[in-house]
Amino acid sequence: MISQFFILSSKGDPLIYKDFRGDSGGRDVAELFYRKLTGLPGDESPVVMHHDDRHFIHIRHSGLYLVATTSENISPFSLLELLSRLATLLGDYCGSLGEGTISRNVALVYELLDEVLDYGYVQTTSTEMLRNFIQTEAVVSKPFSLFDLSSVGLFGAETQQSKVAPSSAASRPVLSSRSDQSQKNEVFLDVVERLSVLIASNGSLLKVDVQGEIRLKSFLPSGSGYGPGIRVDEVSFHSSVLLEEFESHRILRLQPPQGELTVMRYQLSDDLPSPLPFRLFPSVQWDRGSGRLQVYLKLRCDLPPKSQALNVRLHLPLPRGVISLSQELSGPEQKAELGDGALRWDLPRVQGGSQLSGLFQMDVPGLPGPPGQGPSTVAPPLGLGPASLSFELPRHTCSGLQVRFLRLAFRPCGNTNPHKWVRHLSHSDAYVIRI
Amino acid sequence: MPYLGSEDVVKELKKALCNPHVQADRLRYRNAIQRVIRMPKLDQWGQAEVLNFLLRYEPRSEEELFDILNLLDSFLKSSSPGVVMAATKLFLILAKKFPHVQTDVLVQVKGPLLAACSSESRELCFAALCHVRQILRSLPGHFSSHYKKFFCSYSEPHYIKLQKVEVLCELVNDENVQQVLEELRGYCTDVSADFAQAAIFAIGGIARTYTDQCVQILTELLGLRQEHITTVVVQTFRDLVWLCPQCTEAVCQALPGCEENIQDSEGKQALIWLLGVHGERIPNAPYVLEDFVENVKSETFPAVKMELLTALLRLFLSRPAECQDTLGRLLHYCVEEEKDMAVRDRGLFYYRLLLAGIDEVKRILCSPKSDPSLGLLEDPAERPVNSWASDFNTLVPVYGKARWASISKCQGAERRGPELPNTASFATAGPLIPDENKERAQELPDSGALMLVPNCQLTAECFEKTWFSLKVAHQQVCRWRGAVHPDTLQMALQVVNIQTIAMSRAGAHPWKAYLSAQDDTGCLFLTELLLESENAEMQISVKQSEPRTETLNSFISVLETVMGTIGDIKS
């Protein structure tokens, strides 16, 4: 199956290299791969490349390249799945996946690889089985402390009552087993949705797609069950989920292994129960003679009044040769700047139901476009690209799916009651509005 | 052997696939396979491996086939894309005689494939898109209602966008053509020139079926007067006019004005060709060509000049008065001043053709203006699923057929040498059908292959006795030059398992040697070599303990080879 496996940093430095079959023929396979990758012509896909007599398949994850080579004609889906699973496993064991964490935990990574792959064949990737074999402990960058709540407290008064998960939970390694049982009785349940929207220039909705996942990060060795209920188009479950009560009460039971796992994946298209979070009303005035381009953007947030959108950024590509920018923005904390041939408008927080506007004036001499005299409000100039929005919607799911309860079926061996954190989050995958 | 979940699973698999006794008994074999299929506790990697192994199995009856398909049905709904694809491939291959079953399977796999196409992982998305394209070649309407999933997103990498555009082009039908065309039209004005050009070519592809709408869109694009757009649009028009002559009128109306915006070789060639062939309908055609001729000295591309010559001559036939002067100037330049020989030759040829008379010119240059049947040849008709089923879920669709062909050619050349014995044995294994294996095993002893047993020690007395008791079975002479080197000869014969009983020393006259060999059935070959003098002929006499002509001939040829080699080395 796999001949070699290696991990490269984003600059091509090899961090991990493991040869399973010894058939590299003495060549530096990692270097070969990087050179080929950087020298690839623009329209060829880098996902699978061929050189000499071997195939290179890789994924990019957190800025790292995880690469596997093989000389047989095997299934690309299996191989990509394996690479993704390895990325998740390494993240589970080392805390997070990144150049720093990998370099600090080289021994652990090699041990993991030894157990997962034998002579290039996959033995097992289940965290339960691997737990029994892995001896090395992960090295974390700073000691974990429950009192590390520095990023908490952004959202106003209500945070005093609601519990907010400690920020370092995301980066804590899940699977360092033996010590500190008491500290680690926690379950994190994330309902994460990705929203993909395409709106045409006349305001009509061309495409709406929601991809959702329920992710469970469990530090417990035990089982649990919980219940959501909503209409979705396509659902798929993790293999360890028991579905008997799903049809009737919408309850999922499962016994999760330690570590991170995706319980359920669902998709919803075309018909969202709630209105789209953002609507943009642009108006463009362009005087070809003097080269003046005036873009007035009105952004309306259609979320319910209590919700907010965070880290909203509007990215609007501009025609070539834009010289200056003058702006008038409706709120003090907003920022707009010109960079990389595009306008970036940052709004850190947008309240539901509010309307924000920005007027941007630019000088664009010598701009090509449809012929015409005088200012034209009909046809925008070429290169004034579709506006894309990126944002996060905390505590909001576009499909309306809510996890109502998370119940643990039995108590684990520790005495303390385990903490349960449930989080709903939507963020934009590709929210594009055409001008 | 990959770890497949437990010891008994591995045992069952080994039994089913390796034990010839199980394979020989049809019923036992089938039971072992059934047990393999029902294994409960495999993880996703084990499942994928098992599904791969099962590709080798050929069910004996239709009933058994559907049994297996029913048992494996649940794998199609697995959450692991690797397992789903492996199951799909297995179904497609097992059901190769039942196209409706294949179609069913492809319908079931639509959901997972579409989910993979919108996956967060770019690489998975790409692999899924390649497979979607492959399915579309057999079932073009399969994904038509899901066309929205293939709309390109702004942040996607270039290679994914290209694949999506190709898919959109292939899944167009009456219901979605409007929206798809609108979407593609949006891409044509994309900031990235490559992507815009790909979108325009895609519209050209759709134009073969939905000509009017596409021509309208393309004409509008010409109005933007963008260089990279105009050149590709004109090229698309040229291809379209050839395949769909009904749009010629519309194209001719759109063309005037393009010449200002084209700078590259391909675009110019396309425009000039159009002006030449359809120039009678384009009012200012001669003047545009005249512009080109004015600047021919600074024209860098010889292909453009060639095209210009042909086009102008064609136009001359339909509009002689306006083109005569220009044609003359062009021919003069090409014959007298042009440095590229191909262009000069063509100019000279046309000049002489004109001298031969206008009828000759018409006969040669008036070629058909369009050939709609070429469209049918070019677009391969729907291919049956069986033609690509074995490539499904492998790296072949990800590379694309053309690239894969070149890869396997390189691989084949490299691998042929050392690996030959292994591949030969695997190739003959083939599908594990019990009966035929038995017959093949029995055939072997009857073949004429000769296997000389090494280290058969025959004593001198035994040799002498056997020698005198046998009659000469074969006698021949072979040429020999120079003296004999006994050591070399002895070693060479040893390599092919022919023992030397006695040999004269070097330089003896006459020189004699006695050799013995034994094959694996116990038949003895006794040989006498006799060389009277140097540069004479070597006499070979062979006696065989059992009269078998085939093996005797094999032995003779082995001996001849050795003698020939030694003789060559010496001389």
From TrEMBL, chain A:
**How does the record say this protein sits in the membrane?**
Peripheral membrane protein
Domain MHD as annotated: residue spans: 184-434
InterPro entries, sorted: Adaptor_comp_med_subunit, AP2_Mu_C_sf, AP_mu_sigma_su, Clathrin_mu, Clathrin_mu_CS, Longin-like_dom_sf, MHD
List, alphabetically, the Pfam families matched. Adap_comp_sub, Clat_adaptor_s
One GO CC annotation: clathrin adaptor complex
Which keywords appear in this protein's UniProt record, sorted alphabetically? Endosome, Golgi apparatus, Membrane, Protein transport, Transport
Q: Does the keyword Protein transport apply?
A: yes
Q: Which GO terms describe its biological process?
A: intracellular protein transport; protein targeting; vesicle-mediated transport
- The answer to keyword rRNA-binding applying to this record is no
Q: What is its main location?
A: other
Please state where this protein is localized. Early endosome; Golgi apparatus, trans-Golgi network membrane
> What is the purpose of this protein?
Component of the adaptor protein complex 4 (AP-4). Adaptor protein complexes are vesicle coat components involved both in vesicle formation and cargo selection. They control the vesicular transport of proteins in different trafficking pathways. AP-4 forms a non clathrin-associated coat on vesicles departing the trans-Golgi network (TGN) and may be involved in the targeting of proteins from the trans-Golgi network (TGN) to the endosomal-lysosomal system.
Q: What is the annotated quaternary arrangement, including any partners? A: Adaptor protein complex 4 (AP-4) is a heterotetramer composed of two large adaptins (epsilon-type subunit AP4E1 and beta-type subunit AP4B1), a medium adaptin (mu-type subunit AP4M1) and a small adaptin (sigma-type AP4S1). Interacts with tyrosine-based sorting signals on the cytoplasmic tail of cargo proteins such as APP, ATG9A, LAMP2 and NAGPA. Interacts with the C-terminal domain of GRID2. Interacts with GRIA1 and GRIA2; the interaction is indirect via CACNG3.
The record's family statement is: Belongs to the adaptor complexes medium subunit family.
- Please identify the protein, giving its name as recorded: AP-4 complex subunit mu-1
Q: Which gene encodes it?
A: AP4M1
Automatic annotation (TrEMBL), chain B:
Q: What is its main location?
A: Golgi
One GO molecular-function annotation for this sequence? clathrin binding
- How is this protein positioned relative to the membrane? Peripheral membrane protein
Carries keyword Repeat?
Answer: no
Checking InterPro entries in the record gives: AP_beta, AP_complex_bsu_1_2_4, ARM-like, ARM-type_fold, B-adaptin_app_sub_C, Clathrin/coatomer_adapt-like_N, TBP_dom_sf
GO annotation, cellular component aspect: clathrin adaptor complex; Golgi apparatus
Q: How does it assemble?
A: Adaptor protein complex 4 (AP-4) is a heterotetramer composed of two large adaptins (epsilon-type subunit AP4E1 and beta-type subunit AP4B1), a medium adaptin (mu-type subunit AP4M1) and a small adaptin (sigma-type AP4S1). Interacts with TEPSIN; this interaction requires the presence of a functional AP-4 complex. Interacts with GRIA2; probably indirect it mediates the somatodendritic localization of GRIA2 in neurons.
Instruction: Tell me its family.
Output: Belongs to the adaptor complexes large subunit family.
- The name this protein carries in UniProt is AP complex subunit beta
